[in-house]
Amino acid sequence: MTPPLISAILDAAAELLRIEAKAVTQQIESLDADFLSVVEHIGGGEANTLVAGIGKSGLVARLLASKLASVGCRSWYYSALDALHGELGSLRAGDLLILLSNSGQTQELVDLAKAARPRGVKVAAMVSRSPSALSRASDWTLKVHVEREATETKLPTASTTAMLAFSDALVVGVARRRGFTIEDYGRNHPGGTLGVVLASTVGSLMTPVGQGVAQVRPDTPILQTLLEMTRCPVGAALVVDGGSKLLGVITDGDIRRALAKSGKEMLDRDTGALMTSRPRTCRPETTALEALELMETPSQIYVLPVVDAGGIVQGLLRMHDIAGIEVEKSLG
Question: Which of 188, 157, 140 is nearest to 36 (CA)?
Answer without folding.
Answer: 140
